Amino acid sequence: MGTRHWLCTDGQSTGGKALLITLAVVALFVSVANSAAVMSVDLGSEWMKVGVVSPGVPMEIALNKESKRKTPTTIAFRNGDRVFGEDAQTLGVRFPSNSFGYLVDLLGKTIDNPMVDLYRKRFPYYDIVEDPVRKTVVFRVGEDQYTIEELIAQLLQVAKSYAEDSTGQLITECVLIVPGFFGQAERTALVSAARLANLKVLQLINDYTAVALNYGIFRRKEINETAQYFLFYDMGAYKTSAAVVSYQLVKDKATRETHPVVQVLGVGFDRTLGGLEMQVRLRDYLGKEFNKMGKTKTDVFSNPRAMAKLFKEAGRLKNVLSANTEHYAQIEGLLDEQDFRLLVTREQFEGLNKDLYERVTAPLDKALAASGLALDVINQVVLFGGNTRVPKMQDILSSHIGQPLAKNLNADEAACMGAVYRAADLATGFKVKKFITKDAVLFPIQVVFDREGESGAMRQVRRTLFGAMNSYPQKKVITFNKHTDDFEFTVQYAELESLLKDEAGTLGSIELARVKLSEVAKKLKSSVAENVESKGIKAHFMLDDSGIFSLANVELVLEKTVTKEDDEDESTFQKIGNTISKLFSGDSTDKSEKVTEGAEKTEEDESADGGKDAKDGEKEPEAGDKQSTKDKEADAAKDTKADGKEGAAGAGEAGKKPEEGGAEAKNATAKPKIVTLKEPIPSKVELTYVAPLDGDLFEASAKRLSALDEVDKAKKRRETALNALESFVIDAQVKMDEQEYASCATEEEIATIRARCSEISEWLYEDGTDADAETYETKLEDLRAVANEVYARHWEHEERPQALNALKQMINGSEGFLRNARNLTKDSNPEKDVFTAVEIETLEKAIRNTIEWRDTEVAEQEKLARNEPVRLTVKDITDRMGMLDREVKYLVNKLKLWRPKIKPTPPPKPEKTTGKEGEKEEAAATGEEKPVEEPVLEQTPEKDGTTETEPEEPTVEEIDPTATRKDGEEGGDHTEL
């Protein structure tokens, strides 16, 4: 291409090779980095923020196409086109029923949910229908219908595109922020929406947890072994929440490492208290005032477009009144071409929301009550969320807590930055400083099943799995030890009346899942024997770090008593199986079983059948299980002690007669060994809340989104092709009027280019306005074929001087090398005969031919006009440089490999004929003691295992590249944050 390109690739004497190595390293890093970039999405009701992290780039907020840090969570459809963000909001003013916003809280809701009724009341112009299969919310736009998951998925796709544009890499993994009060239906619906957007969800993180993590990672040095308590208060567009958290350094028992831990201790929330409710009330107030003016007989509330205009103005007015005591609401052509202008004071606005302000402190008080802490132990109350900027809110909170509020967080971006740190921690390719998060269960989950009582009547038993404010992720085990036949149980929310009071319906179905167990009797009959005892059916449940509940597995637990005789009678195949088991477990069978039991103990084992009901008069299985475990541990300890005593006795009484030892061994009583066996129990889980989008329904939604994506791609391709054609036409017309380009073209070429440009311009403004992308691309290629010949000549004339200058520098360098090389031949320097006369002559000839060729070609080229075919091209020059470079490289490499010839080793000196005895006699005669000289042989110094002698070279310090590596860096595929 240009001069810089060939200077780097062909002139590789020194810098070229380094460049290739650098490019190889960069290519390797890019290939690793492409799989490493991750993002977080704060998908709020009103605004969407996207955080990104990629190798070598710190955590940052991705900018949208308007270079802004947050984007309205709005999507609009019109005439087959789809727009997002501010464009969708603008379109929504003209066509409000086609523009959808504030969608997040509709996830996982059936059509009869109170939150859906509230949404319809706030936005009456939407056509909302029921999904015939899942009973969820569907928006209808003309003949098209969109489920709530499809709309959210499209917003996530936009977030993904912003993140990819910011990092320049493909992104497939993310952490999504959700309100803490989201239940199972909402969380699984959001995961389904992410799947539709081709995103893998690493975790759903609660908003207050993400903020607390962000707050902690920048104050890591302030955290110590003493717990510090903070309260985070958030008021957003849709809801308000408060969370009490603790920060503390905790030592991990397994790794013995100390890490900071942030733990959620208490949470309070209000689903409907937020800026949106205030904005809706102000909209309705403005609408009533307009109707009172009597400018038109049409009711403003009956016109969707007028309502959309009022809603937009109410949002602007609400923000202005946060900083001003009064402001005018102004809308041109609100209804029937009538303008609207009204002065609104802050006092009037606050009067509209008086009952809302009374609810401001309730979430804070609920969070404190749930945590069991008093306000005086809280270090700070920290604000985040857009509506905490309202002065009235801050005054209420300050007077309630009696201390200043902390406003040192970025209210908009704190959650997003905390979530992206978590994403880097969970993703492969990053190494971050560990910061452990422990979230808390808001809605308790219980298991409900039927059991036969003493009277024979069935009664319902409830056992809590995950209690309120229990930390998660967490595993639980429940033991059913009274059921001997197939049975079923349900999983439900618990204690909602005390937590939500009148708002329990907002969670939807109280029942979460129905689990049916089969083959119970069959497994018991085939497994229980004389030496095998059933310990009950254990159901393993899990609440993962996204707060999503699942049944891991169900198994029948058996205990088999194995005696020494049973061990001796063990078959060959059983022994082989045990041996293989030991190989994989790394220990004996007994120890492997103990590890398994220990793992179960970490999972809080609860007995479902025993319980604490004294009326049943039954032994509590949980206590029995624990007792049996203790008995087993005691027996194992006794066995160990007994073995130790026997071993000691055997060692200490080695002198005893064999007969006595044999008698003692016979009289010893062998202790039985208890082995735990597990049999899987088939289970069928039927979800009873809003079913996640899956199966055929998911595939149908994916096809609809794919079709929309194809439309967008075709639209983008057409716009790109049209812009490229228009730009090339204008550029060609301008260049043909410039002397430097016109001088490179003939009169016929100039006339042809101008004619083609005029023809295309007329076509674009007449028949070409509705053409497709392929037509634009074809016309552009035709015009380029005419103009590129002229452009190529101009480029050659512009680049040739730089290319000739580079050739001159190479010739000068080659001549300098040649002068030094003449002194490294056998004739000029016998000790350093590196090059032969033929090699010197070949290089000299190459230099001479290159100079002659250059001078001849430059002279011939100067005879030609600028618009004639080019004789001396840049490629010709680079080819000559490449030929000369190869000749020089050959000699340079030979010089590097040359070693001086080895000098012959001199023969050893002859020994004296006088023997040792003669020397001793001579010393005795003279009375002097002379040292006896031993014969010394000259030895060639060893080097690298050889005896080759080389001239001594100056010491060169080797630099270890790993010395400059930062702590924690292990390679190009890890980035330390």
TrEMBL record:
The lineage of its organism: Eukaryota, Metazoa, Ecdysozoa, Arthropoda, Hexapoda. InterPro entries: ATPase_NBD, Heat_shock_70_CS, HSP70_C_sf, HSP70_peptide-bd_sf, Hsp_70_fam. One of its GO terms (molecular function) is ATP binding. Belongs to the heat shock protein 70 family. This is Hypoxia up-regulated protein 1. Residues 584-668, 900-977 are annotated as: Disordered. GO terms for cellular component: endoplasmic reticulum chaperone complex; endoplasmic reticulum lumen. Residues 947-960 have a biased composition (Acidic residues). Its main location: endoplasmic reticulum. It is found in: Endoplasmic reticulum lumen. GO terms for biological process: endoplasmic reticulum unfolded protein response. Residues 588-601, 609-646, 909-933, 963-977 have a biased composition (Basic and acidic residues). Keywords: ATP-binding, Chaperone, Endoplasmic reticulum, Nucleotide-binding, Signal. SUPFAM superfamilies: Actin-like ATPase domain, Heat shock protein 70kD (HSP70), C-terminal subdomain. CDD domains: ASKHA_NBD_HSP70_HYOU1.
